[in-house]
Amino acid sequence: MAAVDDAIARGYLPYNREAPVLRTRYAVKPFAEKHQHFRPYFPSRPGNVLDVGAGIGVDAQGFADLGHQVVAVEPADAMRAVAIEAHNHSAITWIDDHLPGLEKVKTRGDLFDFVLVSASFMHLSPDHQQSGMTSLGRLTMQGGHVCMTLRHGPVPDGRTMYEISDETAIRRADKAGFTCLVRERGQGLKRVPGVTWSSFVFEKR
Ligand SMILES: C[S@@+](CC[C@H](N)C(=O)[O-])C[C@H]1O[C@@H](n2cnc3c(N)ncnc32)[C@H](O)[C@@H]1O
Predict the structure, then answer these.
(1) Residues 139-158: pLDDT tens digits?
(2) How far is the CA of 120 from the centre of ligand 1 (A)?
(3) What is the pLDDT of residue 182?
(4) Banded model confidence at residue 26, pLDDT cuts 50, 70, 90
(5) Which pLDDT band holds residue 90 (cuts at 50, 70, 90)?
(6) How many other C-beta atoms are found inside a 10 Å radius of the C-beta of residue 156?
(7) Whose CA is nearest to atom 3 of ligand 1?
(8) For residue 1, what pLDDT is reported?
(9) Contact in structure between 72 and 15 (CB atoms under 8 Å)
(10) Which domains does the chain have, with CATH numbers?
(11) Is the model's pLDDT at 192 over the cut of 90?
């Protein structure tokens, strides 16, 4: 496999250093209390769910517990190791892959009913955002949903993130074959001063 572009790796490598701390921090909020905007779009029957940038696996485990087959993509080795140890559910397949290409996921040939992209897409530089969205379009079945959150505001020390306006996200999604059904802006769970979060539900046409 080709070497990972530095600009892409800068988005996820810092999470290797932070994994021991994030193991606790990301586990504070239980799945049942997360993603309220997205719940009406969760598959109503057991389906295929893709979690992109799955972190320590809280959401992957939540979807598996709801009866779905989950492909959880996490490119940071230390995060993936924590996730596999903490959330080793038989319905979760953990894959070392990354946006924008998601090449290993594409190779599997699956189409997904529901794709969660929670707090990961803003790690992509502008050069990679359209191809990232196009990959999500390739992997989502017609009528399926991509639910995405994007962080805005000061970038935490040591991380690499890019500002993506709501209009840009919606335009890129439209080009990839999605219609935006939900667009919300809020302060997020932690209410960090200066930080806001966008939430989108995109439906595949
Ligand atoms: C802020 S954490 C969010 C984790 C989890 N989705 C959540 O909401 O708790 C961002 C995650 O995105 C992953 N990530 C960063 N760049 C990525 C990329 N290019 N493709 C996929 N995941 C990426 C990081 O390794 C990290 O685990």
Answers:
(1) 999 999 999 999 999 999 99
(2) 4
(3) 97
(4) confident
(5) very high
(6) 12
(7) 119
(8) 52
(9) no
(10) 6-27+36-204 (3.40.50.150)
(11) no
* Residues whose beta carbon lies within 6 Å of some atom of ligand 1: 8, 11-12, 15, 26, 52-55, 73-76, 79, 98-99, 118-120, 123-124
Residues 6+ apart with CB under 8 A from 24: none
Can you state the percent helix, strand and coil of the chain, rounding each to 5? 40, 25, 35
Ligand 1 centroid, distance to 21 Cα (angstroms):
15
Instruction: Report how far ligand 1's centroid is from the alpha carbon of 77 (Å).
Output: 12
Q: 65 — phi, psi (to 5°)?
A: -65, -25
Share above pLDDT 70 across residues of the chain, in percent, rounded to a whole number: 99
Q: Annotate 35-63 with DSSP letters as a single string.
A: -GGGGGGS-SSS-EEEEES-TTSHHHHHH
Query: What's the pLDDT band for 116 if we cut at 50, 70, 90?
Result: very high
Tokens 């940071």 sit at which residue?
A: 76
d(CA 64, CA 54): 13
CA 44 to each of CA 51, 124, 154: distance values in angstroms, whole numbers, following the listed order: 17, 31, 37
CA nearest 85: which of 119, 61, 111, 53? 61
Q: What is the DSSP letter of 111?
A: -
